[in-house]
Amino acid sequence: MSPEEQFQAIVDAEDKIEPSDWMPEGYRQTLIRQIAQHAHSEVIGMQPESNWITRAPTLYRKAILIAKVQDEAGHGLYLYSAAETLGVGRDEMQELLHQGKHKYSSIFNYPTLSWADMGTIGWLVDGAAITNQVMLTRCSYGPYARAMVRICKEESFHQRQGYELLIRLCQGSASQKAMAQDSINRWWWPALMMFGPHDGDSTHTEQSMKWKIKRVTNDDLRQQFVDMTVRQADYLGLEVPDPDLRWNEERGHYDFGDIDWEEFWRVVKGNGPMNRERVAHKVKAWDDGAWVREAAMAHAAKEEARSAA
Prior knowledge:
- The protein is mainly α.
- 67% of the residues lie in helices and 2% in strands.
- It has 13 helices and 2 strands, in the order ααααααααααββααα.
- It has helices at residues 3-12, 25-44, 46-50, 59-84, 90-98, 116-133, 142-170, 174-193, 205-210, 218-236, 261-271, 275-288, 290-308; strands at 246-248, 253-255.
- Strands 1-2 form a two-stranded antiparallel ribbon.
- Strand 1 and strand 2 (253-255) form a beta hairpin.
- Helix 2 (25-44) packs antiparallel against helix 4 and helix 4 runs antiparallel to helix 7 (142-170).
- The chain is globular, with a radius of gyration of 21 Å.
């Protein structure tokens, strides 16, 4: 049996591939691309929410938002660590992101215009992330699958706190409910875009499914998210901004309108509302933090020398 056949046999048997195992170069590169993009998304995703920390309406809400942003930083750490087991350095991943050669989720290139967006991001954005990421706990690559177990638990908390925030707004004044409706109007379609292009237009889905990096297709995940979320919107008393949305009894699913794929590709290619600002902020933070990394390395070297003496 060839190394390729042995590898596929392990995957087909639902066993995990570990860093020391032989793997096809395409498998390794696919994981590096996906895990790095996931890690970058967690870190860039801190920006639109941290924008509201100083403007949270109460100390209670501020504490929740700070904790959530800290969680996202931790998720990035877990994922960069998982990617490093594939032989790519963390500094290299940062440089590729700063150069625009690595991507992150397009959802974070939209601005957060109101406090209600903090709820909608938790409900829709983190809800879409959970829908997409639960299957990754069964990913064939061990370090990635294990990292996703904790991440999914924390993202579930994020989704619940976002929904709870929107419940409070929708039970409040007319202007507060209008703020919540405006927020869902702006975030609904970008949230659906989070699942990626149609299956027929996805260049990675077929191979990723064979390798069991991915378990469910983009379109099936998007349908699952819509079916779950429409009922939640009904409970809030909010209207999903899709005139084509309707229950299809024969299919047992909601039918929904077409995504603006021109907008999707425009944002993915770096021409969204906030692409340049997000990356510029990330680069500045990286450069400003150089002295911290250097000090940590110097301290580690000193401790190592002391232990060896």
